[in-house]
Design goal:
The protein is an alpha+beta fold. It is 24% helix and 46% strand.
């Protein structure tokens, strides 16, 4: 899932990317990457016991990002 926030008046060109991936031992990860469009971003991986928990976390982050202007 890719999100972007672009506001030329404030020189804001940001991206936020989230991906859910299975682990080797039945767990699930939520991989997030964010930064300035056109530049390499920072990456964070959070681990969850179930796919449903990872999807819930992704939805919570999506709602927070939507409030900050990401589309």
């Amino acid at each position: 899932m890719d999100l972007a926030r672009i506001d030329p008046s404030d020189n804001v060109n940001r991206f936020y990317r989230m991906e859910i991936m299975p682990g080797l031992f039945g767990d699930w990860s939520l991989v997030r990457e964010w930064g300035r469009i056109g530049q390499p971003g920072q990456v964070r991986v959070d681990w969850y016991d179930t796919e449903a928990a990872a999807k819930d976390a992704r939805f919570d982050i999506l709602m927070k990002k939507a409030k900050r202007g990401y589309e």
